[in-house]
Design brief:
Elements: H1 11-26, H2 41-50, H3 59-67
InterPro entries: DNA-dir_RNA_pol_omega, Pol_omega/Rpo6/RPB6, RPB6/omega-like_sf
Family: Belongs to the RNA polymerase subunit omega family.
Catalytic activity: RNA(n) + a ribonucleoside 5'-triphosphate = RNA(n+1) + diphosphate
C-alpha cells in the first residue's frame, strides 16, 4: 500500500480514485508511470494516485457537471 497523499482526505478517496484509474487502464488508457510492464493495473493505478500523476475528481465538480446537463424530457401520460 502506498502512503496516502495529502491532497486526498481519506483512504476511501484514495481507493476510489485508484479504482477509477484502474478501470481506465483496463479499457486502454496509457499508464503514466515508468516501466509498467509486468505489473498489475491496480498497482499501477495506486502508484499513479500516490505520486500525484492522477488527481481525484471532487464530488462537487461531478455535481456541477451533472447540473449543467440538459434536462430530461418528461414522458407524456
Amino acid at each position: 500500500m502506498y502512503k496516502l497523499p495529502e491532497n486526498l482526505g481519506s483512504k476511501y478517496a484514495f481507493v476510489s480514485t485508484a479504482s477509477s484509474r484502474a478501470e481506465q487502464l483496463q479499457t486502454g488508457a496509457l499508464p503514466r508511470t515508468k516501466n509498467p510492464e509486468g505489473r498489475k493495473l491496480t498497482i499501477i493505478a495506486q502508484e499513479e494516485v500516490a505520486t500525484g500523476l492522477v488527481q481525484a475528481v471532487s464530488t462537487e465538480v461531478v455535481a456541477e457537471e451533472t447540473e449543467e446537463a440538459p434536462p430530461a424530457l418528461d414522458e407524456e401520460e
